[in-house]
Amino acid sequence: MLTSDQFFGIAILGVIVVQLFLGYYHHHRFIRDRPSSRRWFTHAHLWLGRIVIVLGLANGGCGLLLAPVATKYAVIWWVVCGALAIIYAVISIIVGLSARASRSKRAGEPFGNANGPGFSPERYRQAERYELR
Amino acid sequence: MMGLSFVILFPLGAVIIRFFAPYLPAPTRIHYSVQILSILVVLAATGLGIYISQGDQFNHFRTIQNKPC
After folding, report:
1. Average pLDDT of chain B, as a whole number
2. With contact defined as beta carbons under 8 Å apart, do B16 and B38 qualify?
3. Residues of A in contact with B54 (CB under 8 A)
4. ipTM confidence
5. What are the structural domain ranges in chain B?
6. Which residues of B touch A58 (CB under 8 A)?
7. B31 CB contacts (<8 Å, ≥6 apart)?
């Protein structure tokens, strides 16, 4: 019979291996297509990564509950890890917003414009339609 | 080891590709190298975890303390 720490530990290990292949696929498609925006597998890779790190941190506390130490150490673990995760999230959101602001100041569009490095015929047509309207 | 990997190594790999990508020569290579290293550390830690869970002490401690997890 697996304890919940063991069960989730094995599940997290499986997700990390999925991340490995998802990351490879994301980079392979990035090199091949040079996309101007993120597609579903890129978002999956980013969000699965964030989620699995948080789950791994939480599961560390479950492991401490099993270990021959006082329960307060598991609580300390969860509090410290939660604080680290929140600090990371806040910094990440601030940096992301400021990067987006500087990008749209340069190009006028959040992902650059149709004639920029993300050029594709569809985007060019789209931009032309947009200008004619 | 598991804690070390999840607290330091995985977030380090994430931060490298997220924040330090413009300042590094080969951010993608550093990102996947760090993450593969973390995966190896996690695999080793899993082995150690399975090893200690096989001992009598683990179940003995768990039953006398009535641990839920």
Report:
1. 82
2. no
3. none
4. 0.79
5. 2-65
6. none
7. B13, B16, B17
B31 HSE (CA, 13 A, CB side): 21
- Cβ atoms B35, B13 nearer than 8 A: yes
B42 interfacial to chain A (CB closer than 8 Å):
yes
d(CA B11, CA A89): 11
Q: What Rg value do the Cα atoms of chain B yield, rounded?
A: 17
Q: How far apart are CA B45 and CA A20, in angstroms?
A: 18
| pTM summary value | 0.76
Closest chain B residue to A22 measured between Cα atoms?
B32
- Which one, of B19, B13, B17, lies nearest residue B38 by Cα? B13
Of B28, B53, B61, the CB nearest to A6: B53
B37: which 2 tokens? 């290293």
| Token pair belonging to A126 | 């789209």
Mean pLDDT of B34-46: 92
> Where is pLDDT greater, at B14 or B65?
B14
